[in-house]
Amino acid sequence: MMAMQYPEPKKSLNELVRELARNITRKQLVAIAREHGWQIVQGGKEPFKAIREGYPCVSIPGHYDNAIINRRTAARILKLLLAPTFDNNLYPGELEDKLAYLLQELESQREKAEQAECQLQQALSTIFNLTADVEAGLALADETEQRNHTLCRELNRYSRWVAGLKRKVAALIQQRAEQEQEMLAIAEVVERKEMNEHRSVEKLKQIKLSNVKHIAR
User: Fold this and answer.
1) Were 69 and a residue from 13, 74, 147, 148 both cysteine, which residue would form a disulfide, CB within 3.0 to 4.6 Å?
2) Which residue spans adopt a coiled-coil conformation according to this UniProt entry (predicted)?
3) How far apart are CA 201 and CA 217, in angstroms?
């Protein structure tokens, strides 16, 4: 989840520190500390200390109220004194801005949650429909596979039948060729026999004719 981006305050802590740290006196530091919820006590090495529950005490240097505090020292002290105010979002005008922003962000997150819920329902519906389609597709694929197996068995059976038929046809052709050869051989024998008979008849005719001529002489 993305971190919330708060609107910028009117002045940042560093900007305010740089503005206040120039030529500031001890009296002004004490006043700022009290204004921002610190209690001022005396004691220790420094004449004054600022204390606040939950925060470390802050020493305020200087022996006179109108003594000018070194700029770097003043900046360090001011950061410590002003930090609780910025930490607790109590900087003037900032609390209201952040509250309004939080309400706006909450409403935006609620709308996003509703949109996400709607998209989730649509996604679930799509997944349900896809699941049904996938199951139907798987059932159809299974049925198609079974049909393919049946067709393959029928095709194999038909292929074997065709192969057997081809063998039978080849055998018949071979048998017919053998029969034709036998018939040719028989025809050749008959033809020779007829030719021999014809020659015999011709010879008999010639013999008879020769005998007739001989008797006539």
Assistant:
1) 74
2) 96-133
3) 25
Sheet containing strand 55-60, edge to edge, reads 39-42, 48-52, 55-60
pLDDT in tens, the chain (217 residues): 334 343 444 567 888 888 888 888 888 999 999 988 899 998 666 678 999 988 888 988 888 888 888 999 999 999 899 888 876 655 444 445 554 565 576 677 778 878 888 888 888 888 988 888 888 888 888 888 888 888 888 888 888 888 888 888 888 888 888 888 888 888 888 888 888 888 888 888 788 777 777 776 6
| 164-169-171-174 Cα dihedral, nearest 10 degrees | -160
- Name the nearest CA neighbour of 20 among 54, 71, 85, 94: 71
**Residue 4 per-residue DSSP state:** P
Domains detected in the chain: 13-91 (3.30.920.30)
Q: Which of 104, 113, 147 lies closest to 5 in space, CA to CA? A: 104
